Amino acid sequence: MKKRNVLRKMMAGCMAMGLLFLTACSSGTTQGSGTDKGIQQRVIKAGIGLNEDHPEGQGLLKFKEIVEQKSGGKLKVQTYFSATLGDDLKMTEALQAGTQEITIPSTSPLVGIMKEFGIFDFPFLFNTSEEADAILDGPIGQKLLEKLPEYGLIGLGYWENGFRHVTNSKRAIETADDFKGLKLRTMQNEVHIDAFKELGANPTPMPFSEVFTALESHTIDGQENPLATIKSNKFYEVQKHLSLTKHVYTPFVFLVSKKFWDTLSSEEQKILQEAAIEAGKYQRQLSREEDQKALDELKKTGVKINEISDQERQKMAEIIQPVVETYAKKFGDDLVNELYNELDKIRQ
Ligand code: TK8
């Protein structure tokens, strides 16, 4: 709605300025400087860290299908799965440099680029995927997307990584005490690192593609990720316990290189924007179905699965609270208060 208003104002401005400035005013989005050159033949490299069979991989294939169909085959999306182009951070940097066009990373490792993304890393922030959708698609999520061009990135929306659970080779996590001394891989994200430290674990940040080998060689005891990933990356083969901690929700953010975006026509930008949203709806749906299916399938593997009571989860949240408060100040009290106010509204 807001975007359209801005566009309408821009158009009115253009008309007032007359024909001379018309080309400079032809942008179809507030985020880019789309030209009016129609659709050209282009190859778009899109890489992700997860496998093709993961909901993220399936979402990317859906995105490819939509883009190729809407552009009459002129825009070709070349897909790269399983971190073949590098991990989340490396691919995001390639977007900034203009050597890769698209990636869909977890927001968590991007805090080094844009610290505000860290608000989504507060443990136990969301209770359901629908709450996450409302925040991400609402004013807060959009505000963060609008800041991305400052960092050479264009954000076209959020997809779902999901609720994370802990696996490890030592013991079932039933109480907060069970974290003590566990060497846990975390994402490269200070909120996660400090939260696990607070629980007494020994957090070891590393890129995702190194996790399986580190678990297998017992360099680390455990890791945490959504069920779809634990299944797709076969972590159950090298882990004894899966504890359903549901300790944090991770969004994916759909990113395009700003260097690339600025070379696109408004028509091309529109195709990518619409495809990212449409494929994102499909991906979120799939992610939710897969969360349940993956649990059923993991039950059939050798991994021992345990639930955690709400009371214990509450205790963990209380232990972690000082970390949340520290980071709320770093990310900006106004932003964090707005987040909690929005959440209150959603929950009413
Ligand atoms: C995949 C990552 C990943 C994330 C992580 O590129 O690093 O643990 O959950 O699955 O985005």
From TrEMBL:
Keywords, sorted A to Z: Signal, Transport
Protein name, entry field: TRAP transporter substrate-binding protein
Keyword Repeat: no
Pfam families according to UniProt: DctP (PF03480)
Database matches in InterPro entries: DctP_fam, TRAP_DctP, TRAP_DctP_sf
SUPFAM superfamilies: Periplasmic binding protein-like II
Gene3D superfamilies associated with the record: Bacterial extracellular solute-binding protein, family 7
Cited NCBIfam families: dctP (TIGR00787), TRAP_S1 (NF037995)
UniProt KW Transport keyword: yes
Signal sequence annotation: 1-26
Organism field: Geobacillus thermodenitrificans
Highest taxon of source: Bacteria
Family affiliation: Belongs to the bacterial solute-binding protein 7 family.
